[in-house]
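Fold sample X.
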Amino acid sequence: MIDEQAIPVLDGMREVAPASEAWLVDVWGVIHNGMRAFEAGCEACAAFRETGGYVVLLTNAPRPAPAVVAQITRLGVPREAYDAVLTSGDVTRGLVQAWSDKRIHHLGPERDRGIFEKLGVDLATSIEADIVVCTGLFDDTTETPADYEVTLKGFKRRSTVMLCANPDLMVERGDKMVYCAGSLAAAYEAMDGEVVYAGKPHLPIYELAQSMVRDGLGREVAKDRLLAIGDGLRTDIKGAAAAGIRSVFIASGLHVGAGQRLSPAVVAELFQDVPRPWPIAALDELKW
């Protein structure tokens, strides 16, 4: 077990905020839970912006940023809580454009079709495709990756490459956990299928986020003045570490049981098998 003092548990972000010029904030689990916005998290981002900070909402949502803005607005996230939004859907669109000569099949719910809007993609059947763009399960309220075993085996037989538009394995929706596209990608990799990932924890989305911060502030911002905030160990925390960006861990149902409060001992147990660098702090929830 790691030293219980290695990752301090804070009451809020006020203590660490002055050391940053920009935050890269995860959305699902930090800003909302799929059903409602987290008031404290939104207020923290707004407070940081009032001090001159820049906030990019950095999400593995498999949809373009405008669609995510519309969704979070419906959930109650105020516009003053952020400066910009960057999604794994945006990264996916760039990869789809780069593969314009490939036959592409969409695996996921109809609501995610916006990821192909204005790209001129003529979607192929699963049998014809060279690339399958996976945005999620068709019905994440009832299905699990086991329901896709036959489909994935078919892709493997045809050597179809999977482009995973959302590397998250699961997210917390209200008081339930639901599977994401990353769970299907993991199952495909377990069959030795080839997967290309968009979004966190992979570097392209962090590089794009840094360019958004630069453009938004009109100047370069050193990596040590950036701070990634998220609840996913294998996405937010791992991705920030790989990108050379400091992070703050936020507890959610993804890793912490319902009603369980963070303590140094709980954090130490969570991170005992997580390689350094660890987050500079941990919070029960994002708040100022």
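Fold sample Y, listed below.
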Amino acid sequence: MSNLPASDNESEKTALSRGPRRTPRIVRVLQWLFATAFIGGIFAALAVLLVIEHYSAGLPSTDQLNTYNPAVVTRLYAADGKLMAEYAKEKRFFLPLSAIPKHVQQAFLSAEDKNFYSHQGVDFMGTARAMRNNILNRGHSLAGGSTITQQVVKNFLLSNEKSFERKIKEAILAYRISNSYSKEKILELYLNEIYLGQSTYGVAAAAMTYFSKSLD
């Protein structure tokens, strides 16, 4: 004979007759969303790996940046030291980064790649921002999302072709360069190779072309 009060026996029988508690609907929905997102993330990661593997085949080696030896201006002087003529298809004077004024470096970083020292060759947030601005500013000049490292890739290793395929290759090479060279080396290459108009390449040549002064 049970020692429990009649009311407790009735409550126990009612609970047993109802069976196990069902998981609330909202919890089931959240579980389904989490599982779907997890599986989707796995497939997305595999897709990215396959794309990288596909476009990595046949890419140029980044080792050639070690032996950067650009064509520079040939200058002809008179016996008294006066400059008589310059000969060059591309006006360029190579300078090591240490000889380029800090405020010049900072100006280019501010204008072209504010997160240069924190990203690994590709600034995904900067690219997303540029895409958003281009969508909002249709009909106006488009903003670029390329980092300084990506511009080095374009200038030294790839063509200027505008295509989705080239952008993927550019991103892969930018990541490789960022892991193989110091930020100082990458910035040095950029500031000596960037095209600044009137057949002028690099900031040192631009100083002479536009101001008739040495960069310092």
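Sample Y note: The two ends are 104 Å apart (CA to CA).
Also: The first strand starts at residue 74 and ends at 77.
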